[in-house]
Amino acid sequence: MTDLARILDTGLGWLYDTVQPDDAHQQHHGIQLHLPEANRWYGFCPSGAQHRPVVSVDVINVEWVDNGPNTQQTPANPLEPGELPTLVRELYRRGFESTGTWNGHPGVSGSVGLVRPAHPRLAAAVDRYRHGCTIHPDRSVFCDCEQWTAGFHRVVHPDQRTTPAAARIAEETR
Fold first, then answer.
1. pLDDT tens digits, residue range 30-56?
2. CA-atom Rg of the chain in angstroms
3. Cβ pair 54, 45 in contact under 8 A
4. Contact criterion met (CB below 8 Å) for 148 and 136
5. How far lies 136's CA from each of 105, 113, 132, 140, 145, in Å?
6. CA–CA distance, 81 with 106 (Å, rounded to integer)
7. What distances in angstroms separate CA 86 from CA 10, 56, 81, 117, one per listed residue?
8. In the sheet where 54-59 sits, what is the strand order?
9. SS3 129
10. How far, CA to CA in Å, does 143 sit from each of 52, 73, 125, 153?
11. Peptide bond before 106: cis, by omega within 30 degrees of 0?
């Protein structure tokens, strides 16, 4: 990924346009797309706060400042003061309204809740994950049997190209 626009278009396309197989299960934290040039990664969580999608931004390589005798350290390279509001504006320009934000500057991560639920087939894949292995229910989501692990391999991941719907929304809002 080379820029924020492409990351947002790809991640949002995965959340909202990608049809997941009926036998796939997706861990609820979703996917991460990296922007190393900016020392950031962006997360696209299909079911987070209030079971709604969450887009997050995180510092990839955190540098810490030693505060002397106390045990707390401060990030030397936190999110910028306007970084989370800028992310909210970029999401809104693409047609995605926010339910609110949390964390952000002066921390090393920030999150934006989205109003619209993720694609129903992606939400169903997350529900299947949350129910755990049906063959070994006592192992829940920690099962390592062949059937359970195969469900993770069936998840359709983004191909790193902009999907038609995300591109259309991006074009309409520019």
1. 999 999 999 999 999 999 888 899 999
2. 18
3. yes
4. yes
5. 43, 33, 8, 7, 8
6. 7
7. 18, 12, 10, 22
8. 31-35, 40-45, 54-59, 109-114, 98-103
9. helix
10. 26, 37, 16, 14
11. yes
- CB count in 10 Å sphere of residue 43: 18
The DSSP result for 26-61, as a single string, is: --TT-EEEEEGGGTEEEEEESS-GGG--EEEEEESS
* Distances from the Cα of 141 to the Cα of 15, 56, 79, angstroms: 22, 24, 33
pLDDT digit string, tens, across residues 109-147: 999 999 999 999 999 999 999 999 999 999 999 999 999
- Please report where in the chains the tokens 């074009």 appear, as a residue: 171
For the chain, strand residue ranges (E) read 31-35, 40-45, 54-59, 64-66, 73-75, 98-103, 109-114
Number of other residues whose CB lies within 10 A of the CB of residue 20? 23
Tell me how long the chain is: 174
